[in-house]
## 1
Amino acid sequence: MKINQICPTALLAGAALAVITVGGPAAAADLTGIAAPVEYQSPWQIRLRGLGVITEDKGYVDGVLDSDLSYSDTVIPELDISYFFTDNIAAELILGTTYANVMGDGSLTAMGRIGKTWLLPPTLTLQYHFTDLGRFKPYVGAGATYAIFYNQDADGVQDMDIDNTFGAALQVGFDYMIDDHWGWNVDVKKIFLEPDYTVTVGGAELSGKAKLNPWLIGTGVTYRF
């Protein structure tokens, strides 16, 4: 049989065989529609931190010259829950509770401890995570908190009432991932928190502002599901 008499079907079959042979397994996978499996990563992440709460120690009583306030610093456990909308964008809910001794300062120093209050400030931040640095994954965030003051006990006064209030939050931190799930976290937040309050002294009701504005400095364990 002459060359120019070779069946066109045979030529097409030979060409297809050559493509599969040259392209190898990848080409064969493409022809069959089978793609390489993609590893699934959950959008949920939790962290457990030890947290230092360092207050600004400022405040005043309305109408009292040189009045000031100070507050005790504490160390507490903290749990946060994160949800990743994308590899870079996440929301984080921060949960923890602490207490503060409220003390007179400036012209109020002689009053000593005015009282004690517990504080629950659930804080929600929206974060941007940098993902091109390997195991080192820094992030920045901003959001809001709602501070709930409870179990308030007066000491140097007859009564003390600190108002619940909203505040803003800024955040910076990083995770260093040991493997796909476990990591070490360092986190710093600044909470802008200046609640109003009232106290009763000698039957007279006084009001003012407690400028807590705490720094929250923590470190702990990260787990990505």
Note: Helices lie at 8-32.
## 2
Amino acid sequence: MDLPLEQYANVRIHMMPWCFTLKKSGNTLSTLPEKSVIGTSSLRRAAQLKKKFPHLEFKDIRGNLNTRLKKLDEQEDFSAIVLAAAGLRRMGWENRIGQILTSDECLYAVGQGALAVEVRTKDQDILSMVSALQDPETVLRCVAERAFMKRLEGGCSVPVAVSTVVKDLQLYLTGAVYSLDGSDSLKETMQSCVNFLQQEVEGPNDDVQHVGITALGVSQQALESAQCLGTGLADLLLSKGAKEILTVARQLNDSR
């Protein structure tokens, strides 16, 4: 999901893991022959998987679900392709799932799986109405993730990846940046207290936004903590050389 920062409203998340569909059953990525070609349209996933499976090659693949599966089955270009597991399950094609990718193996994109209601930023009536749909945990996760990407000045042209989880009122954010070939990377995890269960009942305030997210009824202290967490983690990676990694990645991607 890619909405302008100033228009991002209330969110609810359902994370959808990625999976591999393999041409030959019984294989896994680690057992595929050297220089086997894997199809994926994501710079972020390709960079992470190149780092984990350096014996494999990765090639861009486009099209809808049927088109990509047809390319895998009928052409010799690919040994496996990366797809959203939810899409295959929705179509009743679970048997095409050869290997599930966990967040430990491949971090996801900022805001991936988040559903947002886009409204006018000063329309308090609608904001109050849709706030009944929001999930406070998801709001905080998205605030932290978006603050992380904003400070890094990241986007779809560079491999920036995240993973968030809330446990015992602590928000854990893992963030990483990668070179296009995965050979150079930085990855760190930070946490912050976000006691979102103690929600404040706030009146209308169209100036209260956190990286473009308006969340009425969620503690402002928790929102600020989540935003500071994302910014703080980005600053940590920047201090270790993240800007240089992303600059080179962006230049190489633009030159393609």
Note: Confidence is low (pLDDT under 50) at residues 1-15, 198-207.
## 3
Amino acid sequence: MLKLKINHHLVECGTDEAGRGCLAGPVTAAAVILPDNFSHPFLNDSKQLSEVKRLELKQIIEKEALCYAYTHVMMREIDEINILNASILAMHRSIEKLTQQPEFIAIDGNRFKPYGKTPFECVIKGDGKFLHIAAASILAKTERDAFMARIHEKHPEYNWRKNKGYPTKEHRAAIRELGATPYHRKSFKLLPEQLKLNLKIK
């Protein structure tokens, strides 16, 4: 079972992002502060859970968390500041939205920038170690998936409802045939023959 948090005596939020490796759509982060008596036997890294389980846990987290927030950083901003900076920015913006500001921040991964003067710790594979990071990973993943399902309706030929914007063979074949949309990240290598790609704006 995952641990609740790193510092038991502090108000601590967990934060994580989803969508860093995608060719299309935003990078999405979430921040969550859980109550000190929170526990759940199935809460884990969102990548280890089925979509049905993630959606079930999303409802539980939103009901029981002391506070939570999520943020999409869109494609143009990703292209301007790069995906790492956009991921950290999404985390910062999510923390800013929390109705209670944390005394400590736990981050999934190994890269972060200081959020004011709040102490923090990066935890490799933290979404499989701490409940609040796992909760943030689930909110980030489910909110981003919902966004991709919405834009799928505008461009169903790319099948974002299924591939979520990741570089699958199907997704790249659609880019090769139809070009890129405003939802594609222009700074990413959309195709191996990137320089030959006709970037259509739809």
Note: Residues 156-196 form one domain.
## 4
Amino acid sequence: MALNPKISDWRGKRVWVVGASTGIGLALAERLSAQGARIVMSARNVSRLQAAADSVPGAVAVPLDVSDASAWPGAEAQARSALGGIDVVVLNAGTYAPLRAWDLATPAGLATARQTFETNLMGVYGGLSACLPDMLARGSGHVVIVGSVAGYGGLPKAVAYGPGKAALINLAESLYIDLAPRGIAVTIVSPGFVETPLTAQNDFHMPALITAAQAADNILRGLRAGRFEIHFPWRFSGFLKCLGLLPRWAYFRLVGRLA
């Protein structure tokens, strides 16, 4: 069942992709531009962002550190001015550092956890605070939040990353309840393992690994179908969803063995 308006024609759509210098964000910007959307791309690394924007026809680069709450209003104003309005905002910026429970016993581990939450969770709140006033005034718009299947349940090496992504799923559900009646669509995207600079640091086998281009195609298919939740690849994301239905003792035993 479609919970959002279906987007099958991107021609003329005004899209702000945040976290667009590499990986899923860049691939999505490329796909959307090829389908006729007008694109603004944002990321923290200015030189990498500009190089990425130069590779996407017509794209405008607006540098932004999503963890800096004070930077959001100015960046949103630049993006809205460049596009003449924002129809869709894709909040994709994120970071990942493998952390185990015992890492939190060190100052460095705690600092890494704080940074992860500032980027992955509070960065989304910053985007919402900046974009929602105009969308609410117009009674239209679409918020796309990119989370992760790591938010479906506790996993090894994810004591900061996983909880932040779980919070995004809950946040998207709360947003949908509030915003759908006011004409604003909300989508949560939960990818599995995707080939990006972040996953390149993993020292373990990543099942069902896909490319960023494949991830972008999955997102566009989900938006075309009007889905609230887009998760992929199904053989992996579906498996993790099923794990969440197990009794806790069975979940811990199975995930512990996989780890």
Note: The first strand starts at residue 14 and ends at 18.
